[in-house]
Design brief:
single chain; four-stranded mixed β-sheet; 6 helices; 26% strand
Amino acid sequence: MLITASTLQALRVGFSTEYQNAFDAVPKLKDRVAKTVKSSTALNTYGWMKGLTGLREWLGPRQIDNLTEASYTLLNKHFEKTIAVNRNMIEDDNLGMYSDGFTMMGDGAARLPEELVWGLLKAGFATNCWDGQYFFDTDHPVMLADGSMSTYANTDGGAGTPWFLMCTNRPLKPIIYQERKAPAFTAKDNDKDDNVFERNEYVYGVDMRCNVGYGLPQLAWGSKQTLNPANYAIARAAVQGMKADGGGPLGLVPNLLVVPPAMESAGRKLLNSEYGTAGETNEWKGTAELLVVPWLA
């Protein structure tokens, strides 16, 4: 193959198309539980998180939230994948070996945000959020109507496979996906580029900058108990009973049940079946949508 500017342009388009087709084929599930926050700096500080839980009745002096005490900083991480194509391979028209590489590059770029979001959710039983407690914990701090401090739980513990009941129709979601730079496909295929002159290689890569963090714990219930009607009822009542700072109800209605593939059958029986295991009417049918997430396997 004679290497010309038009040849390289065609190769660039072909490699980019293979990358994009694979990128588009990956299921995008993270947006169901994660709010995307655009970042314009190296890091974002979410000092306003504590102030999202509602207003208090103004009696006497204002009660000022010290947002620095609840600050939560996410530093953007940088990710990349690079493939080098030997110039001789192009001249010899021997490019078949590279097709899978660009397919996997697109697949990996699309999977990374999913892996980050769902990995963080799964780690919530042992990872701190902005209030200093594990995201799924039994003693999150909350201020009562009289100004005293109390605690609330968003888990009932357990030792089995985790499942999650969430309220995802509020402005903030349980997880934050912070995006500094969306995945960008780049080619260094000019004959004057150092990689071509020094190593006889055309280089193609993708890079992105992002990170993930926790939103409001009240929006999600995490359980390692058996997924059955009794434990689902506990989770549902707990989410609906969540209070804001000041003691007022948040008015949450859980709408999404998230499970790994191994619990799909239990989730379908709980939310889709007309009858329970003993033939009784299934009172929980249709009370939430089931989302089966392969990244939780």
